[in-house]
Amino acid sequence: MRPNTTLRTWRAGGQTLGTWIGLANTQVAELMANFDFDWLCVDTQHGLVDYADLCNMLPAISTTDTTPFVRVPWNEPYVIMRALDAGAYGVVVPMINTAEDARRAVAACKYPPEGMRSYGPSRAIIYGGPDYGQKANDEIAVILMVETDEGLANVEEIAATPGVDCLFIGPSDLSLAVGLEPGKGWGEPAFNEAVAAIEAACARHGIAIGLYTHSTELAIEFWQRGYHMVDLLGDSRLLAAGVREALSAIGHLRTKPDNSTPELY
Ligand code: 3PY
Ligand code: MG
């Protein structure tokens, strides 16, 4: 089976950089895959991507060695299994609140006897290779998002769940969880405390930690802090940043003279 180079890097204690793909477009996926990201995460929770889009976007990413991840819309076994069958080499599962949630997500990613994944890796076997069925349990990354107050309260048990490879922080929901506006938590004491608790739980249980970021500066900060799965913005924000920079350089930034960012997700 084609190795999951991102997962192997984490297991060796290394760091990886990626970005989020929320635009439902094959060319965007292929274009982003041709940069130097270690992984890309196609977002089927808040992105505009449906299953038909995903089935075209994953092969576009597979034109390169970039590891293809998918954020599923919810911790729903059949949705996780369909993303894996389409060739995702890892799933990012949002809103994990309890150890039971964590076990349910892990089980959906593993074939028996370790889990309850149903066998039928339609495209995954073509992308992964003929021994996919034998090796997938060990190559598919299980990435769980801790981003709610309940998830924070149970972060220790979630991190301790066998089969979990990485806990991933969603800063918008985590801000809400600590009583702040979405995405406005950066630098606030309550938000920092929550991040530190997730970080400590991951370190104690020897699993990777990752997060979504809203700026290059934040990505640099968390990269320097040794995070293993660092997201650098997302396709919409990267596109907006490039457009803004070019318009500004040519002196044509009329609608946003203060260079303010439209509130992109
Ligand atoms: C969040 O910030 O809550 C996320 O889920 C990031 O995509
Ligand atoms: Mg979220």
Stretches with pLDDT under 50, minimum 5 residues: none
Q: Helix fraction?
A: 40-55%
The mean pLDDT is 95
Output the number of helix runs.
13
Number of strands: 8
Describe the structure.
- The chain has 265 residues and is α/β, with parallel strands linked by helices.
- It has helices at residues 5-11, 26-33, 51-61, 77-85, 99-109, 124-128, 132-139, 149-153, 155-160, 171-177, 189-205, 216-224, 235-249, and strands spanning 16-21, 39-43, 67-71, 90-93, 141-146, 166-169, 208-211, 229-234.
- The protein has 13 helices and eight strands.
- The model has no long low-confidence stretch (mean pLDDT 95).
- Bound molecules: 3-hydroxypyruvic acid (3PY) and magnesium ion.
- 3-hydroxypyruvic acid binds at residues 94, 147, 170-173, 212.
Fill in the keyword field for this structure.
265 residues; alpha/beta; eight-stranded parallel beta barrel; 13 helices; 8 strands; 45% helix; globular; binds 3-hydroxypyruvic acid; binds magnesium ion
What is the topological layout?
Blueprint lengths: L4 H7 L4 E6 L4 H8 L5 E5 L7 H11 L5 E5 L5 H9 L4 E4 L5 H11 L14 H5 L3 H8 L1 E6 L2 H5 L1 H6 L5 E4 L1 H7 L11 H17 L2 E4 L4 H9 L4 E6 H15 L16
Parallel strand pairs: 1-2, 1-8, 2-3, 3-4, 4-5, 5-6, 6-7, 7-8
The chain binds 3-hydroxypyruvic acid (3PY) and magnesium ion.
